[in-house]
Design brief:
Blueprint lengths: L1 E6 L7 H14 L3 E5 L2 H7 L2 E3 L27 H13 L4 E6 L1 H12 L3 E6 L15 H22 L2 E6 L6 H10 L3 E3 L7 H13 L5 E6 L5 H12 L3 E5 L11 H19 L4 E7 L2 E6 H6 L6 H10 L2
Parallel strand pairs: 1-2, 1-4, 4-5, 5-10, 6-8, 6-9, 7-8
Antiparallel strand pairs: 2-3, 10-11
Helix pairs in contact: 1-9, 2-3, 5-6, 6-11, 7-8
The structure holds 6-O-phosphono-beta-D-fructofuranose (F6P).
């Protein structure tokens, strides 16, 4: 079988490890792989070339994606999709592994509806792909945020300040909630839970009264900007407040062992999924096990909620 692999949407640490797994699992089973550059946009332009086991050497530890990535507006159009289909047919490609976030999974489903076998591999720091408990890149991003919080804590304690740390996640609060628990934040503001700023301010003031010498608030970008939250907190409480926006630092860096392991398992499984002839599937992790889920059914599921984690962060910070 001839398989294409592409990475799409925001890059995520571990995408390279997933590409490596696809290429080497395919080679081990006697299949051919083509790498598509710049995601669906590259598919439309026919930017693809054979990718052999040696081409994916020395990338398991590298962040970003050697295949490059893009967000393609043209692929949202029927014309763009038909062009992509034509390119695949011309190259004799029978199945496509799409590595990316929820938007990329929707793109994979559209490609399948145009007549191609597809398998989706969830990879996004936002961790918001339905059908998998975890996405490639999330663990690395959370570790990056926790490392930043550790550093911020040093200076926050020294000055007895309140810090607002703005993290990514698009409309998801997974990074904020997980980093809140692992980093010991006082409060976590996530889009999945209506923030009550009066309560947040009361908790901060009470914390200092009880002897805390700093406060760390993590705000997911889907709630508000860190600057906005900091301004409102300092106006209401009079606490000396500073803001750190972590931004794209969260998307880079060498993937953690957990992300490499996840990428290896899901990338290899995607090849098995395609070669078994499944139409449109997503490979993911459920309860620690690798699973195949029908892509359309997965995308119709409600998003997994990080509210329990955010609640836990706050209980443990009392
Ligand atoms: O989806 C990953 C992500 O990093 C989101 O958390 C963030 O909202 C978005 O991408 C930023 O996108 P861009 O890099 O295109 O500005």
């Amino acid at each position: 079988m001839r398989i294409a692999v592409l990475t799409s949407g925001g890059d995520a640490p571990g995408m390279n490890a997933a590409v490596r797994a696809v290429v080497r699992q395919a080679a081990a089973a006697g299949h051919e792989v083509y790498g598509v550059l710049f995601g669906f946009e590259g598919l439309i332009r026919g930017h693809m070339a054979p990718l052999g086991p040696r081409d994916v050497g020395d990338i398991v530890h590298r962040g970003g994606t050697i295949l490059r990535t893009a967000r393609s507006d043209r692929f949202r159009t029927t014309e763009g999709r038909l062009q992509a289909l034509k390119r695949l047919r011309e190259a004799g490609i029978e199945g496509v592994v799409v590595i990316g976030g929820d938007g990329s999974m929707a793109g994979a489903l559209a490609l399948h509806r145009a007549g191609v076998l597809v398998c989706g591999v969830p990879a996004t720091i936002d961790n918001d792909v339905p059908g998998s408990d975890v996405a490639i890149g999330f663990d690395t991003a959370v570790n990056t945020v926790v490392d930043a919080i550790n550093r911020i804590r040093d200076t926050a304690s020294s000055h007895e300040r309140t810090f607002v740390v703005e993290v990514m996640g698009h409309w998801s609060g997974w990074i904020a909630a997980a980093a809140g628990v692992a980093g010991g934040a006082e409060t976590v503001l996530i889009p999945e839970r209506t923030p009550d700023l009066d309560e947040v301010c009361a908790r901060l003031v009470e914390g200092f009264r009880k002897g805390k010498n700093h406060s760390i608030i993590i705000v997911a970008e889907g709630v508000a900007s860190g600057a906005e939250v900091a301004e409102r907190i300092s106006r209401r409480t009079g606490l000396e407040t500073r803001v750190t926006v972590l931004g794209h630092i969260q998307r880079g860096g060498s993937p953690t062992a957990a992300d490499r392991l996840l990428a290896a398992r899901l990338g290899a499984e995607a090849v098995l999924c395609l070669t078994a002839g499944h139409g449109a599937h997503l490979v993911g992790i459920e309860g620690g096990r690798v699973v195949h889920v029908d892509l359309e059914e997965a995308l119709a599921r409600p998003p997994r909620s990080p509210v329990d984690l955010a609640d836990l962060a706050e209980v443990l910070a009392t």
